[in-house]
Design a protein that fits this description.
This is YhcN/YlaJ family sporulation lipoprotein. This protein is mainly alpha-helical. The chain has helices at 2-55, 80-97, 130-143, 156-170, 179-188, and strands spanning 102-110, 113-120, 149-153. Strand 1 (102-110) and strand 2 (113-120) form a beta hairpin. Helix 2 crosses helix 3. The chain is rod-shaped. The N and C termini lie far apart (159 Å).
């Protein structure tokens, strides 16, 4: 009987050992299966992220549109006051050119000042007389009363420069671009009347 008992105990222990091995084995299997499942999910997620980002089109900055062509600059328009001064200067030049012993005249007006360049007839000897300067000054002041200072010259170089300035002003350039030069011309010429 002892033998039988020990045999039963031994068999029971074996059975217990086998079932405990099975339990351990099934726990191990579950743990291993969980590890593989987690690894599979991680690698699947990484693969999905990498694949999705690799397949997405690259974001490049949009090409800049070409700059619109600049509008053509409008033709310079003469302000009404400047046009009025140009008309007065032309009218004065004609009146002065009609005077005795004068071939032609050029007049530049800026504000209350006038610069007059005259080309004398060949028969006039010497320089511009004081009487001629006073006559020219009177014509200018009678026709344009707001003129306070009149500079009169018969010097060929100065007259040529005044013609160039008058032509540029008539073409639309502002008188302000010539103020320094006109001031210098005025310094060289003694004004006829102030």
């Amino acid at each position: 009987m002892v033998f039988l008992r020990s045999y039963i105990i031994c068999c029971s222990l074996r059975k217990l050992k086998k079932t405990s091995n099975k339990i351990i084995r099934s726990d191990d299997m579950q743990l291993i299966n969980r590890k593989w499942a987690v690894l599979f999910l991680v690698f699947t997620l990484l693969f999905t992220i990498i694949t999705a980002s690799a397949c997405a089109p690259q974001r490049r900055p949009a090409p800049t549109p070409p700059a619109p062509a600049p509008a053509p600059a409008p033709a310079p328009q003469t302000p009404p006051q400047r046009a009025d001064e140009n008309a007065k200067a032309d009218m004065l030049a004609k009146k002065i050119a009609d005077m005795q012993n004068i071939n032609s005249a050029t007049v530049v007006i800026s504000g209350n000042q006038a610069w007059v360049g005259v080309d004398l007839h060949a028969n006039v000897k010497g320089q511009l007389s004081n009487q001629m300067k006073n006559d020219i000054t009177n014509v200018v002041k009678n026709e344009v009363p707001n003129i306070q200072t009149v500079y009169v010259t018969a010097d060929a170089d100065t007259v040529t420069r005044l013609r160039d300035i008058a032509r540029d002003i008539a073409a639309g350039r502002p008188v302000s671009g010539f103020i320094n030069e006109l001031t210098e011309i005025g310094r060289r010429i003694t004004p006829s009347a102030k």
